[in-house]
Amino acid sequence: MAIKVVSYNIRKAIGTDRLRKPERILSVLAELDADIICLQEADRRTGTRQSAIPFDLIAQHSAYRPVPYEIRPGGMGWHGNAILIRRDAEILDHRPLHLPVLEPRGAVMADIAIRGQAVRVVGMHLDLSGLWRRRQARAVIGHVEACDGHLPAVLMGDLNEWSLAGGCLKDFMGHFTFAPTAPSFHARRPIARLDRIMTTPDLAVLDAGTHHSPLAMRASDHLPIWATIRPR
Fold it and tell me: CB neighbours of 66 closer than 8 A, spacing ≥ 6?
């Protein structure tokens, strides 16, 4: 059975019209109909850093539930990174990942069982600085390699890498395969592949793409990217 995964920088639910509409993000996720979703900028970056999408809205108007990192009361993830899964999926393990930082950055990991298959998921949002991006990429690779017990792994997120094959992409390419997604930034006129999905060699990517619906072009400054995967 195939698993559909999505990565989406939701920009704190603020759209290209500068309006904060979390329900619009959930509508885009409904269009995608994925099994596992990695969100970036899922928490507000000021004040108490509450979830950009209220938990009751997720419960009442989506097919998902958040992986409960519970690092800050009312927050969904770790430095804006969060993972949503279908309600019938099982959380086998989950943890935040600490990265070397210049500005507040982090990543999250979860082992998820869905339809009888287990997969390790990593969501990340890397630094604007190329030097720190490479340090963070190596840290993410180290975290995955240090896990007890091997699972097929999919890594997703906003890598903030503008080059086509350089920078932190070089570090990831030595360990993972990139899904063939198209440019996702800026949502109104996408020219950059800042958002990426990567898999370990024991996962096959059956299909992949960037979601270009009219709603997605308004809901955030990034378009969501997706891939359909299954164990080889």
Answer: 51, 55, 58, 76, 77, 82, 83, 84, 85
pLDDT band at 48 (very low <50, low <70, confident <90, very high): confident
CATH topology of domain 3-231: Deoxyribonuclease I; Chain A (3.60.10)
Q: How far apart are CA 128 and CA 43, in angstroms?
A: 18
Q: Which amino acid, residue 176?
A: F
Residue 220 · residue 8 · CB < 8 Å:
yes
Copy the structure tokens of residue 87.
Answer: 């309600």
Candidates 112, 111, 141; CA nearest to 126 is: 141
Band the pLDDT of 62: cuts 50, 70, 90.
Answer: very high
Which tokens belong to 154?
């999919």
d(CA 89, CA 118): 10
Its pTM stands at 0.97
| One-letter identity of residue 105 | R
